[in-house]
Write a structure and sequence with these properties.
The structure holds two protein chains of two kinds.
Chain A lengths: L7 E7 L5 E4 L4 E2 L11 H12 L5 E12 L2 E4 L2 H8 L13
Antiparallel strand pairs in A: 1-2, 1-4, 2-3, 4-5
Chain B lengths: L5 H22 L5 H10 L2 E3 L4 E6 L4 E2 L1 H14 L3 E4 L4 E4 L7 H9 L17 E2 L14 H11 L14 E4 L13 E8 L2 E8 L11 E8 L3 H15 L10 H8 L1 H15 L6 H12 L11 H9 L1 H10 E3 L5 E6 L10 E3 H14 L4 E3 L5 E7 L3 H10 L14 E2 L14 H14 L2 H4 L4 E4 L13 E8 L2 E8 L11 E2 L4 E2 H18 L7 H8 L2 H7 L1 H12 L1
Parallel strand pairs in B: 6-7, 7-8, 16-17, 17-18
Antiparallel strand pairs in B: 1-2, 2-5, 3-14, 4-5, 4-13, 8-9, 9-10, 11-12, 12-15, 14-15, 18-19, 19-20, 19-21
Classes of the chains: A alpha+beta, B alpha+beta.
Chain lengths: 98, 559
């Protein structure tokens, strides 16, 4: 039996700034909490194709697993947690803003 | 120092203009990321977890004050006010934006620095002994030949798309401080019957399949070096595996074909290309050597040193750990620790860089070095100036007296920055250093090299750490494996895996148990951790690491 599809967000790095971005229903955000959560596999596949086609603005598009609490996505893996916050040795990156 | 010729200056300017154009074409959509990636990598530009990263070469680790000051200016203008010095004598900027990178490269070119071939499947920045030109045990200064190799390998048309990256290190001393046996090619300058030549070692490397390099040629005359290197890389270029990234390094080529087969192929190729080298390279080497003439050493009183050593315990402690014998009487080699307890190994703020540059100009014949152990070296300081140097360093948070001790840890950037990492390295290094500082034990423990990598690629050299730590992702949790008994010197040895890994919470206590066990096991205070390990083997250290399994064994025996 196929593995059930778990909630995901589309993420990438911005071409110019290089920082982590997440897809929303209308574009991209730098805040994981504002990302659109995809729960349907066919929809996610289609959205991935569309996002990957934006080659002049984003780099390295992929689907990242999230856990949804109170309608807000949270990382399920520590790598995504660091991407959403920034490094642990300095308060740089997203933790400066969010 | 090497002085750029007009050719060098023009080459760098045209290369930077070329890359500026490539960046522009990426931004306007003319190049896809797949097309752009190999181009940006050849110019040192990575895309990491949180941002781009620019890796700048510090050729054979040598810098002058103006260059160090420029590195600081770049950190302030286009980054976040600091830089990270790496295990291959590079500096990395962790936060540049794509549009700014061409300007950063132009700024670097103003002081003859660049990021060419600091990444990609090319011959990388040639590294050398950080005590080059100053060490008392040196046969010859390795930097001129490292510079020659840099010029030969830069933009070498045959070697821009090798099966995989290719790293060369050179030492001029028997005591290897450049880890030459863990490089694709390691060169040791040797003297035979009054003639200078090279011992050529090939096929070393760490990473997923660690290998100690093998001797390809015991003595290669100086004049034959470039054609011989060209033959080696040429053989590898054709024979190296392009079907599997994990088997593409020359260490695997050597391992799969055998050193004798590789030697025969190299000799055959060498015979073919040797006549093309008509001696121009040796003329260039002679010119380069003139640039590396030793500084005009001064004669002065050493009394300030003796006074400070007698009366200032902090200075004495720093002198005992951070100074190395210089070949010139009255001089010392100063190692500046970038490992203040609790700080990120290898990081220097822009103000610290400027202070080091000023000290080098004032007291150090305007020379600085970056060591593969992520520290900064002042290679030539008169002993009479050492108290002033220490005082200036200390005021800038650069006076930590821990060179070669347990808190002088090599750590790769790990998952705090690197897209390849499987776990973090930096916080583990910070916590170990902080813990042993609290225990006030590190001077009693003595020489002990801890090296931490955040993934199997082993940028943190964990395989050759006396205690090596490898961070992995085990079912979505950071997990740290320990290896013991590694050695990165002329007696290069790959460490032995101690057993199952530890969680991030458990790794610091595990290291502490190891060190406490060593203090109990050593035959006398002068027996180092590594010597004790070599004498006793893994068993007693393993028992200290895994006390619970010892309890289980005891219970089983009792039953």
């Amino acid at each position: 039996m196929a593995k059930p599809f778990t909630p995901k967000v589309i993420t990438a790095n911005a071409l110019l700034e290089g920082d982590v971005i997440y897809q929303t229903a209308t574009g991209w955000t730098r805040d994981l909490a504002a990302a659109e959560v995809l729960t349907d596999e066919a929809d996610a596949d289609l959205r991935m194709i569309e996002a990957s086609a934006q080659i002049d603005s984003v780099v390295g598009v992929y689907l990242a697993d999230v856990a949804v609490e109170n309608n807000i996505p949270h990382p399920t893996h520590f790598r995504e947690d660091f991407r959403a916050k920034g490094p642990s040795n300095y308060a740089h990156g997203k933790q400066e803003t969010f | 120092m090497y002085h750029y010729t007009d050719f060098d200056t023009n080459f760098l300017a045209s290369r930077n203009a070329q890359f500026r154009d490539q960046v522009e074409r990426r931004i306007n959509g003319s190049l896809t990321e797949d097309e752009f990636k190999p181009l940006r990598l050849m110019n040192g530009l990575y895309l990491q977890l949180h941002a781009y990263m620019l890796r700048v070469a510090i050729p054979y680790g040598t810098l002058n004050g103006a260059q160090m000051t420029k590195l600081a200016d770049i950190a302030d203008k286009w980054d976040k006010g600091y830089g990270h010095f790496t295990t291959r004598q590079n500096i990395q900027y962790n936060w540049p934006e794509l549009r700014d990178v061409p300007d950063m490269l132009d700024a670097l070119a103003e002081v003859n620095l660049h990021a060419i071939q600091t990444s990609g499947n090319t011959i990388r920045n040639v590294t050398a002994d950080h005590f080059a030109g100053a060490a008392a045990d040196e046969v010859a200064d390795p930097r001129p030949v490292a510079e020659l190799i840099r010029q030969w390998s830069t933009d070498h048309p045959e070697f821009q798309f090798l099966p995989r990256k290719f790293k060369v290190a050179v030492t001029g001393s028997v005591n290897d401080r450049a880890v030459i046996k863990a490089h694709d090619i390691g060169l040791q300058i040797v003297e035979q019957d009054g003639e200078i030549g090279y011992k050529v070692i090939v096929g070393g490397g760490l990473g997923r399949t660690p290998m100690i390099g093998k001797v390809l040629k015991e003595f290669l005359p100086q004049a034959d070096l470039l054609p011989y290197l060209e033959a080696i890389v040429s053989v590898y270029n054709l024979l190296g595996r392009r079907d599997n990234k994990y088997k593409a390094r020359i260490k695997i080529t050597v391992h799969e074909n055998g050193i004798d087969d590789i030697r025969a192929r190299v000799e055959e190729r060498y015979a073919l290309i040797r006549p093309q080298f008509t001696g121009v390279d040796q003329q260039m080497l002679a010119r380069i050597e003139a640039d590396f003439a030793q500084p005009e050493f001064k004669s002065a009183s050493e009394e300030p040193f003796q006074n400070a050593y007698q009366h200032d315990p902090l200075f004495r402690s720093w002198s005992d750990t951070n100074l190395t014998e210089h070949r010139e009487a009255g001089y010392s080699i100063v190692s500046i620790s970038l490992k203040a307890h609790g700080k990120t190994p290898g990081d220097a703020s822009s103000s610290q860089m400027r202070i080091m540059a000023e000290i080098a100009k004032r007291y150090g014949h305007d020379e600085l070095r970056i060591s593969h152990e992520q520290n900064v070296i002042l290679p030539h300081v008169h002993r009479g100036d050492l108290p002033s140097v220490f005082s200036a360093l200390r005021a800038a948070g650069l006076g930590t007296a821990n060179i070669g001790l347990i808190s002088d840890i090599i750590a790769c950037p790990g998952m705090d920055y690197c897209a390849l990492a499987t776990a973090r390295s930096i916080p583990i290094a910070q916590e170990i250093a902080t813990r042993f500082d609290e225990l006030k034990l590190e001077h009693d423990v003595g020489p002990l090299k801890i090296k931490i990598s955040g993934c199997i690629n082993a940028c943190g050299h964990h395989h050759v750490g006396h205690i090596g730590i490898l961070g992995l992702d085990r079912a979505g949790v950071e997990n740290y494996q320990i290896t013991l008994g590694g050695d990165g010197t002329q007696d290069a040895t790959i460490g032995e895996r101690a057993g199952p890994g530890f969680s991030a919470d458990a790794i610091i206590p595990a290291v502490e148990r190891l060190v406490m066990a060593y203090l109990d096991l050593r035959s006398e205070p002068s027996e180092t951790f590594l010597a004790t390990y070599k004498r006793l083997g893994l068993a007693p250290f393993k028992a200290a690491l895994y006390p619970e399994s010892q309890d289980q064994k005891a219970q089983a025996n009792a039953a």
